[in-house]
Amino acid sequence: MPISLSFKINGIDWSEVAEIFRQAPLGNREPDKLRRACENSYLVCFAFDKKMLVGMGRALSDGEYQAAIYDLVVLPAYQSKGIGRQIMEAIQRRLPVKTIILYAVPGKELFYKNLGYFKMHTGMARRNEALEEFRLEGYIE
Ligand SMILES: CC(C)(COP(=O)(O)OP(=O)(O)OC[C@H]1O[C@@H](n2cnc3c(N)ncnc32)[C@H](O)[C@@H]1OP(=O)(O)O)[C@@H](O)C(=O)NCCC(=O)NCCS
Predict the structure, then answer these.
(1) What's the CA dihedral at 104, 134, 44, 111 to 10 degrees?
(2) Which of 74, 111, 115, 117 to mutate to test the pocket of ligand 1 (most atoms within 8 A of CB)?
(3) Average pLDDT, the chain
(4) Can you tell me the distance from the alpha carbon of 48 to that of 55, in angstroms, rounded to the nearest whole number?
(5) Domains contained in the chain, CATH given
(6) Is 109 exposed, middle or buried (0-12, 13-18, 19+ CB in 10 A)?
(7) What is the whole-number distance in angstroms between the Cα of residue 84 and the centre of ligand 1?
(8) Is 24 in the pocket of ligand 1 (CB under 6 A)?
(9) Of ligand 1's atoms, which has the minimum distance to the CA of residue 112?
(10) Distances in Å between the alpha carbon of 77 and those of 4, 13, 20, 28, 114?
(11) Would the CB of 111 count as within 6 Å of ligand 1?
């Protein structure tokens, strides 16, 4: 499927992005918060089928040493066609750092393993909100 990638955030309809998150599913997001999160990211990659937005991914980075990838998401009708991989590879190519970290939604670990990611013994996270939700979603024991 011929998909085009764009790294520009102007002209994006953030309600459309929120709708992709809802359908994917990757949670309910407020369009304005998504816009601010993307504006504050190091880079954002959008995937289009002609003019229709079908997926995205974004990275935080200091531009020198470290980066983290978040919010990789593809519309269900477009999943398993190689678009997620294309977005990941495009983001990775543009990150001028040695190490990229991420955490996978439970069940998606193999997708990232196929892209060269491995589990780390000492990865740690702190939640400012209740841990119970994180536990129920399968991120922690
Ligand atoms: C996860 C997601 C982004 C993957 O995008 P995608 O376009 O469906 O994946 P691709 O078609 O590019 O898959 C690339 C490769 O990973 C494999 N793969 C895809 N999903 C996988 C999964 N859940 N488990 C194992 N392998 C998977 C594919 O078979 C493919 O392998 P290949 O390149 O050897 O053929 C997409 O399925 C999605 O949006 N899911 C819902 C939201 C979500 O969970 N996002 C991840 C947040 S961490």
Answers:
(1) 10
(2) 111
(3) 96
(4) 7
(5) 4-102 (3.40.630.30)
(6) middle
(7) 6
(8) yes
(9) 16
(10) 16, 19, 11, 19, 22
(11) yes
Does the pLDDT value for residue 1 go beyond 80? no
CA of 79 to the centre of ligand 1 (A): 7
Q: pTM for this structure? A: 0.95
CB 105 less than 6 A from any atom of ligand 1: yes
Q: What interhelical angle do 31-39 and 14-23 show, nearest 10?
A: 110
Is the shortest distance between the CB of 40 and ligand 1 below 6 Å? no
Cβ-contact 27, 21 below 8 angstroms: yes
Q: What is the pLDDT of residues 112-130, one digit of tens each?
A: 999 999 999 999 999 888 8
Q: Which of 54, 58, 55, 50 is nearest to 33 (CA)?
A: 58
Q: 9 in ligand 1 pocket by Cβ < 6 Å? A: no
The first and second tokens of residue 54, run together, are 């079908």
Q: Whose CA is nearest to atom 28 of ligand 1?
A: 80
